[in-house]
Model the fold of this input.
Amino acid sequence: MLSSTVQIQTTDPSRLIRRLCKHWSHKFEVDFDDQHGRIALGDTQCSLTAGENSLTATLQTADEEQLTREGVVADHLQRMSADETFKFAWQR
Done:
């Protein structure tokens, strides 16, 4: 299994989890609460974990090409934020 992880600094990680999971719930299978989120992006799993003033997103897949979804997840997280700007440094 291949994975890519990013941690971003945010004032309200729980809000981002809720907003992103609700946003994608019409298209993908999602499961979430205030501390964790899981989104099934086809063959790629996206896990979200709230920390203290941070959010960790992890993509897991068997297909290396699917790790390119990093950009899609980053773009949507940025859109879900009302007024914060994030730096995304994915670690594979």
Summary: The chain has one domain: 2-80. The domain at 2-80 is CATH 3.30.310.50 (TATA-Binding Protein). The first helix runs from residue 13 to 24. The chain has a mean pLDDT of 95.
